[in-house]
Task: inverse folding
């Protein structure tokens, strides 16, 4: 059985080390926060916060306290607030150790596409281009194939890029791949997924 | 110099003109200058260009100026929540310039700091880089982005004193600080104007030198995505 959303999030949480400052994207990456366990992780929200807490209890929502997905959240004892220019200074300046984010396509050279499908409604890139250009390590969490069964792990991205050569590791429902010289390297397989299955679902060059 | 005005319309008196460029604070609907936007709607000023991270929703924030067709162009990073925006954009009535969020914030900060341009690696190799100067520093490629110099900045803060020193609350600070600095004139709306001397000088988020006019008013502070957890889960 391939990993489900929560298993992918749990695997992505293994990427995080004690003391890291991390930015989590919307969707499955948001679930990663549920699996950090005892590790001392500080979550950054790019609208201007370090030390993001969980959703508030009903009745305790604060319109002045939201995350980058515009959801109401809470603060922690360690929380610090700052303006948007300061927020992206720490992102662009490489102070954030890792970003975990979703993707539409990833290519074997680390190119990432996750903001725009030509001909469809374009909402904007938000902070994604700044994050992938600036943080120490970019980990993509996504399904290995799209709803038509086509690989999202490609030789070259077909969609407009969010960043060029920015992805370090890809975690999918089928396993974990690293971007290395010449293509992708299989790091591990999801429980019950064979190497042949992962290779068959991958268009990109696999070097090992 | 008197900075405190009676209401939003008075605070904007003499500052608005058709075709002007306005930088606005806020992220989503959080920390937006809702009273000043309403006053601009009522003033009927047209052909506006806004530098603002988002474009509000249909009936709140910059969305109310889209309904009245007062906006010619938006410079934003994300506009997903606004159906009227999309309709005007797809029909060619509205210009849109996407900026990566950090590039937009830095363009405002740079403009306010007297810096006309800066190099960033954000967007290199993407459509954002097309037509922009590329330059290598220590083997890495960067693109040139320009500072924003707006005719007017409109921002929302939590508290002000009568000299314009501002403090913000939680994540409502967001784009308000860089936006405030990049306008020739900055008008701030706040929840409370407090007596001079009652704000801690060590805790001013935006010094009054950047703020020219202030109003106090009641804010709706609408929540865009109300998300909660159940107490049993705690």
Result:
């Amino acid at each position: 059985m391939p990993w489900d959303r929560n298993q992918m999030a749990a695997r992505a949480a293994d990427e995080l080390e004690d003391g890291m400052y991390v930015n989590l994207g919307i969707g499955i990456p948001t679930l990663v926060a549920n699996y950090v366990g005892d590790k001392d992780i500080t979550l950054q929200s790019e609208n201007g916060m370090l030390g993001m807490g969980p959703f508030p209890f009903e009745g305790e929502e604060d319109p002045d306290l939201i995350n980058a997905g515009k959801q109401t959240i809470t603060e922690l004892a360690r929380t610090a607030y700052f303006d948007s220019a300061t927020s992206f200074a720490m992102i662009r300046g490489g102070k954030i150790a890792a970003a975990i984010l979703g993707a539409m396509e990833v290519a074997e050279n680390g190119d990432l596409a996750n903001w725009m499908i030509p001909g469809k409604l374009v909402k904007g890139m938000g902070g994604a281009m700044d994050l992938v250009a600036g943080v120490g390590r970019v980990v993509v969490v996504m399904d290995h194939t799209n709803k038509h069964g086509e690989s999202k792990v490609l030789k070259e991205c077909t969609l407009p890029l969010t960043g060029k050569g920015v992805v370090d590791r890809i975690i999918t429902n089928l396993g974990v791949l690293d971007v290395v010289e010449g293509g992708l390297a299989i790091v591990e397989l999801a429980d019950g997924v064979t190497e042949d299955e992962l290779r068959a679902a991958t268009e990109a060059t696999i070097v090992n | 110099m008197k900075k405190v005005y009676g209401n939003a319309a008075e605070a904007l008196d003499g500052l608005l003109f058709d075709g002007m460029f306005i930088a606005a604070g806020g992220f989503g609907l959080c920390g937006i200058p809702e009273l000043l936007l309403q006053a601009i709607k009522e003033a009927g000023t047209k052909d506006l260009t806004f530098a603002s991270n988002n474009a509000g929703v249909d009936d709140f924030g910059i969305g109310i100026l889209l309904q009245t067709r007062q906006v010619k162009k938006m410079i934003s990073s994300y506009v997903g929540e606004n159906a009227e925006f999309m309709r005007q954009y797809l029909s060619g009535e509205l210009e849109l310039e996407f900026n990566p969020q950090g590039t937009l914030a830095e363009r405002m900060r740079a403009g306010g700091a007297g810096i006309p341009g800066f190099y960033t690696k954000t967007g290199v190799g993407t459509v954002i880089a097309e037509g922009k100067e590329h330059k290598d520093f220590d083997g890495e490629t960067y693109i040139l982005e320009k500072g924003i110099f707006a005719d007017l900045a409109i921002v929302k803060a939590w508290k002000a004193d009568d000299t314009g020193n501002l403090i913000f609350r939680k994540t409502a600070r967001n784009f308000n600080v860089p936006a405030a600095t990049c306008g020739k004139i900055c008008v701030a709306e706040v929840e409370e104007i407090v007596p001079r001397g009652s704000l801690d000088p060590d805790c001013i988020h935006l010094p009054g030198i950047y703020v020219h006019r202030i109003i106090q008013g009641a804010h709706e502070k609408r929540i865009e995505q109300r998300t909660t957890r159940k107490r049993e889960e705690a």
